[in-house]
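Supplementary Methods, section 5.1.

A reviewer requested that the exact input to the structure prediction be made available. We therefore reproduce it here, unchanged from the version used in the analyses.
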Amino acid sequence: MAPKVAILAGGGDLPARLATAVRGTGREVFIVAFDGQTDPATVAGFPHLWSRFGAAGSIVARLKAEGVGDLVFAGPVRRPSFSELLPDWYTTKFLAKVGTRALGDDGLLRSVARELEGEGFRVVGLHEILGELLTPAGPVGSRTPDEAARRDIARGVEVARGLGALDVGQGCVVQQGIVLAVEAIEGTDAMLDRCAGLRRPGGGGVLVKVKKPQQDRRLDLPTMGTTTVEKAAAAGLAGIAVQAGGSLIVDRTAVGALADRLGLFVVGIEVSASEDTK
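The structure derived from this sequence is encoded token-by-token as follows.
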């Protein structure tokens, strides 16, 4: 019998989609929802626990009591301030142990995963359960990038990989070879919001998102959905390029249809083995 799955739920509708998919396979599901992060609708109809991030000790104890075997991270999470964290003794010991490794998102998530595995859980990737969310190579929708956009994509991959290697972010916006914005702690949506006033005269502009070179695919693959398309269109961009096989598209059919309607391309791009070794 397959082990019970616990979903560590961030924001958006992805955790709920995952919970429904897991239940559809006949496996039991338990959701850990976080105060101020998880949409309350996510837990409707599912066994769950509401918690703050700093209460790791009680979370681990509850997961063990529930008989959970597999853990999945799903949905975006806004990093809490230390005052929001309010660490319990378990969390305090964890933070003291990881030290500066927890400064970046990837470093923090890797450390959390190691700690959970040390408690006897198995951390699995969201894409291992919802494989259809993985971005395919090629266009999503009917539009494709022109030569100028392909040059911007190449530049964007170079920049985003550099950011990722420093554990800063996963994306950037490039227009006519000029980097208009890079993603950091604010996330993709906020980055796109500020791009409208930064565009150069003339057309073009591409959002590029790729996974970090060192990124553990189980923990935080770049993700996009219809909101990303809407934000890119509002910023006046020509399209979006995301890493094929190294990113997730939530509701690919809806994304393609919306991109067509708004006049954008969405394309899955291959990253060479020399660029992507994880």
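Residues 4-129 form a domain with the Rossmann fold fold (CATH 3.40.50.20). These observations are discussed further in the main text.
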